[in-house]
Every structure is written in C-alpha cells, then in structure tokens.
Prior knowledge:
Layout: E1 5-12, H1 19-28, E2 43-50, E3 53-60, H2 73-76, E4 81-87, H3 91-95, H4 97-107, E5 113-119, H5 131-140, E6 144-147, H6 156-167
Parallel strand pairs: 1-3, 1-4, 4-5, 5-6
Antiparallel strand pairs: 2-3
Keywords: Nucleotide-binding
GO molecular function, one term: GTPase activity
Amino acid sequence: MxxxxxxxxxxxxxxxxxxxxxxxxxxTNVFNPTSEATLGASFVGKALSFNDxxxxxxxxxxxxxxxxxxxxxxxYRDADAAIMVYDITKRDSFNGLKKWYEELKENGPRDIVVxxxxxxxxxxxxxxVSPQDAKAYADSIGAIFRKTSAKTCTGIDQIFKxxxxxxxxx
Length: 170
Ligand code: GDP
Ligand code: MG
C-alpha cells in the first residue's frame, strides 16, 4: 500500500451556509439538523483511495470567524484546495463568494484548486440562484461547481473526488 498523500482543504463562505455540516457529512456521514457548532478542532481528516493513491484530506473548518471575514493567514497557507460554499436559497451568500475568492487569491497559494458548493440542494424549491449563473461564475474563475446537500448526502463525496481529479488528473 502506498503512503497517503496529504491534501489540505480549506472551507470558506458565509456563516450558516452549511460549511461545518458538509465537512461533518463527508468525514463521518452524519447530519445533525440542530448543529450550530463547528468542529472546533483546527482540522479533521479522512482518507480516500483514489486510483492508485491514498489521499488524506485534511479539512480546515472555521470556528465562526467567517462572520468577521477575518480568517488568519495560516488558514490559507499551503492549502491544496478551497471549497467555497453558498446556500442555494440565499442569493447574498452566493454574491458574497466574490469577496471570499478575492481573499483566497490574496492569501492562498497561486495554484490552489477551487470548488464551489451550492449547498442545501434538498431545498431546491426555494432556490434563489440559478444553477446556470453559479456554473458561469465557477467557469469564469476556473472552479469546479457542484450542488450539494449535507442533509441528503448529494454531491458531497463527488466534490472531493472532483478536487482529487483536478489535482491528480488521470
Ligand atoms: P456554517 O455556519 O456554514 O458552518 O453552517 P452549519 O453547518 O452550522 O449549518 C447551518 C444550518 O444549516 C444548520 O442548521 C444545518 O443543519 C443547516 N444545513 C446545513 N447543510 C444543510 C443542507 O444541506 N440542507 C439543509 N436543509 N440544511 C442544512
Ligand atoms: Mg461552521
């Protein structure tokens, strides 16, 4: 068996969009509808086998500092990928991604892989951002786009696989 390859993934986006829930779903396959809390620790990890490799995703979640748009520089340092999350029912959370992207470009590595997660896809009847708009924005910055739901599991594993594939193309 090969030695795991460590990948640092940072999660960005407005408070309440479901960042911690997406991370929790990916890591433990659990959804907690009343969760307010973040995972607390600086990062959590999960290994996945991918082609001939074992990838260890070390995922950095915020502890609420995103409210002040002031994530420490070390949050971004040496990140391999960033997942920018918005809530599909909240237009503002999508508009806000531009600012997160600027911050990422300012503080993150030049070649970082960026993915956009349109989360809460289970609430699609209240969708406030057209997927075409979201995809067009993602394309304009060279980002992956996926709709996700931490509640139903939709798209969660896929977005991490998309990231893996972009870092290690077949
Ligand atoms: P964060 O502030 O971005 O970390 O967001 P949280 O993960 O704390 O989630 C905020 C709220 O949205 C919580 O009540 C979650 O249960 C809820 N939530 C998160 N993801 C989803 C989802 O995919 N679908 C639905 N319906 N609710 C979600
Ligand atoms: Mg959180």
